Amino acid sequence: xxxxxxxxxxxxxxxxxxxxxxxxxxxxxxxxxxxxxxxxxxxxxxxxxxxxxxxxxxxxxxxxxxxxxxxxxxxxxxxxxxxxxxxxxxxxxxxxxxxxxxxxxxxxxxxxxxxxxxxxxxxxxxxxxxxxxxxxxxxxxxxxxxxxxxxxxxxxxxxxxxxxxxxxxxxxxxxxxxxxxxxxxxxxxxxxxxxxxxxxxxxxxxxxxxxxxxxxxxxxxxxxxxxxxxxxxxxxxxxxxxxxxxxxxxxxxxxxxx
Length: 258
Hints:
Elements: H1 4-10, H2 12-20, E1 24-28, E2 45-49, E3 59-63, E4 69-72, H3 78-82, E5 98-102, E6 107-112, H4 123-142, E7 147-152, H5 165-168, H6 176-187, E8 190-192, H7 194-197, E9 223-228, E10 235-240, E11 252-256
Parallel strand pairs: 6-7
Antiparallel strand pairs: 1-3, 2-3, 4-5, 5-6, 7-9, 8-9, 10-11
Helix pairs in contact: 4-6
């Protein structure tokens, strides 16, 4: 997302909500505090986790169904246990990257995963600290009830998940380390919902602004819905809404019969 304020100014979010009427909407990279976003969707409760740093990162959840509880960030002790502070004294645990909502039959987690950066200065933090922390967290939640987690994971899992894998091998979002980090979610029993319904390449959720990449569909699939294996039979669809404009990302969605 370009930031929720920019998308609201364009009317793109309002148009999407009016057309699709999701039961639950998850946003990442909101780049705003709640009071900075002049938006109110009737019938939805709002939950925000904004970064301590103004205009940066952040997540939000809009839901028609009232959650049992909502948790911002990782549990107490995770920052220390997984050493989420990088060498620039930035604590990724305070960047508003995670919101968890508990419902009767599942947990829902929205996440904006760390970007490794062009020079890979945050790759070590992402691979050795953030990814293990997030996997431990969703696995811990999964011991109580099934988990759905979604968001910008800032990684293309396989060669089918980006238009030009050979040219991007070893670059941010397609390093061996980041791909291994994603694979560990699969190995832990989480299911990449989109791949249940759609195989092959050409299906992307993010495009650079350069060189008319979106029009040419030279993109990456870095936005995902993953669910616990037990929810797989309840999945009815998983889609990328590539026709929705207003951001460099396209919305992704699932339909579950729960």
